[in-house]
Every structure is written in C-alpha cells, then in structure tokens.
Write a structure and sequence with these properties.
Strand content of chain B: under 5%
Structural class of chain B: mainly alpha
Largest interface: A-B, 27 and 24 residues
Helix content of chain A: 25-40%
Number of domains of chain B: 2
Oligomer: heterodimer
Strand content of chain A: 15-25%
Radius of gyration of chain A: 18 Å
Number of strands of chain B: 2
Distance between the termini of chain B: 23 Å
Strand order of the largest sheet of chain B: 1-2
Distance between the termini of chain A: 37 Å
CATH class of the largest domain in chain B: Mainly Alpha
Chain lengths: 276, 278
C-alpha cells in the first residue's frame, strides 16, 4: 500500500443503537494521515469509543463509509492492519508476558523462532526485559498496559487504536507511559488514534485533537497541535500548550461536554447492542 | 515450607476432632442409653474407630488374607473402573459442552434431555447398561466404567458451557481484531478461559465417578470391586460390623484420592492469579 492515502478515512458515518434507539454518532467525517497522532476527546456518551470500534470493524456503522489503510474496514481487520489497546490490558492470565505478546504472531502463523525474536524486541521496546516468563497478575497495572502495547505493536501494524489506555492508571504512571508512547510512536512510524478523557493528555500527545460533543456524537472541532516535536517535560511549561488546552476546553464547553457527566453510558449502549 | 507444615498440622487436628466427636458421641450414647427411634448406640451400630482400623489388619475370613489386602485389590479394581469412566465422562461432557456452546438452537433442543438424564436414578440405568454392553462382548468392568461416565459427564457439560461463555468481551474483540475465526477463538481463548470452571466440575465428577463405579458393580454382579465388598460385608454386618465400616472408610479414601488427583492436575494446568482460583 502506498503512503499517499489517509490511514483512516471516515465519510458520513452514523451509528444508531437499535431501531429508533440512541443515535451515538451523527455524520462523522474524519481523515487521519500517515504518522498522525489523533486524539478523540469528549465526555462520556459522545461516541468516541464507538467510533474507535467502528474503525477497527468491531462494530458496524449504521451508514457511511469507513476506509482503513485504503480498504474497507473489514478487509483492513482481516489483513491485520491495526493493533488495539483497551483501557484494561486484557492480557490472558494463563499465558506468560512473553506468550501474550506472541499471541497476534501466532494468529498470523509465524514460526516459534521468529515469534520469540520479535517478542524479545518488543519486551525491550516497552522496557520489560526480564519479565517475559512472568504471568500478567504478577505485574503492576502500568506494566500490564505496557505488555498490551507491546502486543498491539508486535506485528508492526500501520495503525494503532487506543481506547483510553491510561485511564485506569495513576497520574505518575500515566505521565511516564505518555512519554514512553511518544518515544515508541517516533520510533515505529505508526499512526495512532487515541481515545481519552484527559484534555492535558490529548494536547501533550497529539498532532491533532478531535473534540466531540455528546448525543448525538458529533465532531465539535479539530485542534491542530502545533507544539514542537519531540514533546518533553518542557512542552508542558510552554504558553502555547496552555493556550491549546484552553482551546480544547472551549470547544468541549461549546458542545455541552464539560458539565455533562454520565459515566458508563456508552459502555451500556455497546453491551445493549450486542444483546440485540 | 511453613505453610506445608501448617497444612499437615491442620489435617491432623481435623482428624483428632473427628475422632473425638465419634468416640464422644459413642460414649455419651452408651452412657445415657440414648435412643433415636430404634437406633441405639452400641458396638454394633457404631464401632470404635480403633476397632474399624484394627479390623483392616485382621484376616478377612478364617485363614484368609488380611482385610486390608482384600480391600486393596478391590480398590485397584474399582479405581480402574472409576478412572476409565471419569476420563470417558470428562471427554464426552467437554465435547458436548463445546458443541452446545456454539449453537443456541442445539442448546435449547438438547439441554432438557441432558438434565432429564440426570434425574433418572443410576440404579435404574445400571442394569440396562450392563445387559446392553455385556451382550456385545465387552468386559463387565467396562459397563461399570460407562455407568461412572454417566455420572461424570453432566457437571462437566454444564460448567464447560458456563466457562466457554464467561469470556471477557474485550478479550473477544481482541481475537476479532486479529481476524481470529471461531476455531482460534475456541482454542486460544474460550477453552483456556474455561479451565477454572472445568476443574470445579472435574472435582465434583471425580468423586461421583467413584460412587458410580461402586454402585455400578452391584447390578453387574462384580465381586472383585469395592461394591462387591460392600455387598458382601453388608451380609455379615451383624457379626462383624467393623468390616463394613472399614470398607466404607477405604471407599471414602479412594474418592478423596480421585479428588486430590484433580486438584493436583489443576495446579499444573490452571495458571492464574491466586485470588481467582476457584
């Protein structure tokens, strides 16, 4: 595939949960270019996780066109064009750290030797050398999430989808993993779509921040983050950083997203749809 | 090391308490002429623990081998029936669970009959199994194994079904993101995730298979197993009650051995957070 086309291209994507049910997403248009780091931010219920799942072909849009890596989302999924990281690490308890990272490679039919070589590279990349033989429950939450990132990147997918990956972690771990993610992103040249609740995190990490508004989920505005790369601790001190945070906050407020707090609505909707 | 010592100590303590309860009840019953209907505590209804254990080292009949030698052979025989039955039942039960987990229609259609199969008393089924399989030239002990399997498979099927469905939604999404079809999802995710459920069922089934083997020996007229021994010593209860009690004790130990074997296998197979162990 050439590098010219957008990695993710959404046209007029709608999502309604059930006949006459809640409209989760309303005419979403979005282009994600190669090497973009795009954050989706918005209050609970704005459909940002739903949108990420649609890109990953884990749920189907009601209408609209979803093109990933130049092909329909389904084909992209079948071609292993993306890796995904969830809020919880979702590691398999019965596998060691190393074998968790090897899981997607097994699915791709790699032989054992090649799998283990790649696994060791990945373990090094996320700085977990020496933990290959441990089981997930022996690791801290932050370390588990690093395993999950290593697993998602193990087969070098052009696109990385991340659904609030650091949302369950404490602030210090979160900042450290933010730095680490940027380092990995710079090193692997992949494109990242990142769902988050945190304005500061979105601005710090992204090249673009997509601000969404709830019910129905719409794109309220897109903020180009023109902070210099690489982002460091000094980035957080810059006035431009503060300005961009204010701008994202302004858009969120405009969309009615700053004073709304209904934790878990989206999660319930997804569960409700799976029952249908 | 310390915890192993503690465990041994605890086991010893429990045995001492059980011994004290038994002997205490016996002493109280005899001293107070305690009666429950026609039940009266005496050496015939409730022999001393040391008499029961001592009986094991008495000849089983005049000039015959020691009781414990007779029971040892019977235990090996019944253990073979139970083990073969347990394996057949576990494999069969697991296979049914996997098939039913993949089709709600099959599940709805077959589940009532699977449940019904367990409401029929084993004593009613056993003679038929013996006649059917015996007529096909299979050894009698194999018929007994089939009866043991009949008691084994049901918990396995039910828990396999539950375990296969108890998979985290995101773990499924993860497999789908790797373009995983039904087969890899089954073997790489659902089956390993269902192992704790499977092993809870196997623990129940392990003891049930021993019961099934003992009961199955009765209609099969098998003399060489524990079932035969129980039937035999039942007839001599009036003169030698401790023999039957001793046989029951051995049968219980066989059930416990089966249970512990499953616990051991679980420790080898199931790798997960200590607090998640079922």
């Amino acid at each position: 595939m050439s590098e010219e086309h957008a990695v993710v291209s959404l046209r007029n994507v709608d999502k309604q949960f059930g006949e006459g049910g809640v409209v989760a997403l309303d005419s979403i248009d979005l282009e994600v270019e190669p090497r973009d780091f795009v954050s989706l931010i918005g209050p609970s219920g704005c459909g940002k996780s739903t949108l990420l799942r649609i890109v990953g072909d884990l749920i189907q849009p009601t209408s609209g066109e979803v093109v990933v890596n130049g092909k329909p989302a389904r084909q992209a999924r079948l071609d292993h064009d993306y890796g995904i990281v969830f809020q919880d690490a979702v590691l398999y308890d019965w596998r060691t750290v190393g074998r968790n990272i090897e899981l997607p490679l097994e699915m791709l039919g790699w032989d054992r030797k090649r799998r283990q070589e790649r696994m060791r590279e990945m373990v090094e990349l996320v700085e977990l050398s020496g933990f290959e033989r441990n089981h997930p429950w022996q690791l801290s939450g932050g370390m588990q999430q690093r395993v999950s990132i290593a697993r998602a990147l193990s087969f070098s997918p052009p696109l990385l989808l991340m659904d609030e990956p650091f949302g369950a972690l404490d602030e210090m771990t979160r900042e450290r993993l933010n730095d680490e993610l940027l380092r990995i992103w710079a090193g692997t040249g992949s494109t990242i779509v990142f769902v988050t609740h945190s304005i500061a995190e979105a601005v710090f990490l992204s090249t673009r921040v997509v601000v969404m508004s709830p019910r129905p989920g719409r794109i309220q505005g897109i903020v180009d983050v023109d902070l210099p790369q690489p982002r460091t601790q000094a980035t957080r001190e810059q006035t431009r950083y503060a300005e961009l945070i204010r701008e994202v906050r302004r858009l969120l407020r405009l969309g009615g997203g700053l004073d709304v707090e209904d934790e878990g609505v989206e999660e319930q909707l997804i569960v409700a749809e799976e029952r249908l | 090391m310390r915890s192993a010592l503690q465990r041994v100590g605890l086991t010893a303590l429990v045995l001492v308490v059980l011994y004290a309860l038994w002997e205490g009840f016996k002493w109280f019953g005899e001293a107070s002429a305690f009666r429950l209907g026609t039940f009266e505590v005496n050496d015939r209804t409730l022999p001393h623990v040391h008499d029961i254990i001592g009986q094991l080292f008495e000849p089983s009949r005049r000039n015959g081998p020691l009781l414990i030698e007779v029971l040892w052979d019977a235990t090996l025989f019944t253990a073979k029936e139970a083990a073969v039955g347990f394996l057949m039942g576990a494999v069969f039960g697991f296979a049914i669970g996997v098939v039913l987990a993949h089709s709600r229609l099959l599940q709805r259609g077959f589940m009532p009959y699977i449940v019904a199969s367990q409401t029929v008393p084993i004593l009613a089924i056993a003679p038929m199994v013996v006649i059917w399989l015996g007529g096909r030239g299979l050894p009698d002990w194999f018929s007994v194994a089939v009866i043991a399997a009949y008691l084994t498979f049901f918990p396995v099927t039910i828990n396999t079904l539950r375990g296969l469905h108890a998979v985290d939604r995101r773990a499924l999404d993860l497999m789908r993101s790797y373009a995983g079809g039904a087969w890899p999802i089954l073997w790489k995710l659902r089956v390993p995730a269902s192992m704790p459920y499977l092993f809870s069922a196997l623990k129940v089934s392990a003891t049930a298979s021993v019961v099934g083997a003992i009961i199955g020996e009765l209609p099969a007229s098998i003399q060489s197993g524990l079932g035969g021994a129980i039937l035999n010593f039942n007839q001599y209860y009036a003169t030698s009650p401790a023999s039957l009690w001793a046989t029951n004790l051995i049968a219980a130990l066989l059930g416990i051995a089966f249970f512990l074997a499953v616990v051991g296998a679980e420790k080898l197979v199931v790798r997960r957070a200590p607090e998640n162990v079922a």
